[in-house]
Specification:
Rossmann fold; nine-stranded mixed beta sheet; globular; 11 helices
């Protein structure tokens, strides 16, 4: 089975096929040339927007429960990406209108998260709950796992990050560019502290949540970021809406309604010049997708194409590039199945 990619090699074979650091540097230069080229200048205006909400907390803090209540306040169809072994179904009766669940099992690669996000978008979800985003970082097949496997086989930790970081960034980009409201939960590192109970005078042990288990700086990617404790209270660590900044409260349906009112208070009528993707640029992206020899190469090629199309807000180009990607993926999977059949 010499031609069959090893799904458990941590991506080392993918890296060898790309061609080590020199090829990566060339790819980076090509990516910059593809994405750069169009600027949008307009007078600062409050726009209608979609929610980008992050929530972190220790076990038992109510992350899933709170996310569903807030999503209920936002209204519309709700879809949940469930990595927590079926916990998404435990609250089936929480919301009168219900919600959809997409179970996500290992490996928790960024690419699988992106596919799940796109699947819920295409299914008509208006709000997507990612429960939880932590698995994409520290779960089986997540970024830390992949980086460790590549580093173990290559002996070069820095080289491993050069491959893993673009994959992580592509997932963040998919969250930010989604046409849906996004609520992403994250586990928090847990610590126990001793405190004096004012009522009894005795020392008691209390569990507290610390930083989210995710790549450093993830909080900056969200419009609002909540930190939940085991009493299900949320501390607002960051809030660009300025509605909740610095407050401590218990999230509920009204929280979602309050955020929605702010999100919908802007305008869509902003005069800007939108530039369609150049024909030669699109042809180059299509060629790169069709030249992909493995699913990992295809993921890398389509990530570049996706960012280029979304940067220009060219939905027609994005639809065409997505169609080409799907066709190439089907061809690669058919080829892999044929190879397996030969060697069976």
């Amino acid at each position: 089975m010499e031609n069959q990619p090893d799904s458990d090699d941590g991506g080392l074979q993918w890296y060898a096929q790309i061609g080590c650091l020199e090829q990566i540097e060339n790819d980076d230069a090509e990516r910059k040339n593809i994405i750069m080229g169009a600027f949008e200048i307009h007078k600062a205006t409050k726009r209608r927007a979609k929610l980008r909400l992050g929530m972190s907390g220790p076990a038992g803090s109510g992350k899933t429960y709170s996310a569903l209540l807030i999503a209920g306040g936002l209204g519309g169809r709700i879809g949940m990406i469930d990595t927590e072994h079926g916990s998404g179904d435990l609250y089936a009766d929480l919301l009168p209108e219900g919600y959809d669940v997409l179970p996500l099992t290992p490996p928790f690669t960024p690419a699988r998260y992106i596919e799940a996000i796109h699947a819920l978008e295409q299914a008509g979800a208006s709000t997507i709950i990612v429960d939880s985003l932590t698995h994409a970082w520290s779960g089986e097949g997540g970024s830390l796992d992949r980086q460790g496997k590549i580093a173990d086989k290559s002996g070069n930790s820095w080289q491993a990050w050069r491959q893993v970081t673009p994959e992580h960034n592509a997932l963040v980009e998919a969250l930010l560019q989604s046409p849906c409201h996004i609520i992403a939960t994250m586990r928090a590192k847990t610590e126990y502290v001793q405190e004096r109970d004012e009522r009894t005078g005795k020392q008691v042990v209390r569990k507290i949540g610390l930083a989210p288990i995710m790549r450093d700086g993830i909080e900056y990617e969200f419009t609002t970021f909540l930190e939940l404790d085991v009493q299900h209270m949320a501390f607002v660590g960051k809030d660009r809406t300025r509605l909740l900044d610095g407050t401590i409260f218990k999230p509920d349906v009204d929280t979602g309604k309050q955020l929605l009112a702010w999100l919908d208070s802007g305008t869509d009528d902003i005069e800007v010049t939108r530039i369609s993707m150049r024909a030669e640029q699109k042809a180059g992206l299509i060629d790169a997708i069709n030249r992909a020899g493995t699913l990992d190469e295809l993921f890398n090629a389509f990530s570049i194409a996706y960012r280029a199309a979304t940067t220009l807000s060219d939905q027609e180009a994005l639809a065409e590039l997505t169609k080409v990607k799907d066709e190439r993926k089907a061809a690669l999977e058919a080829h892999d199945d044929a190879v397996l059949g030969v060697h069976a």
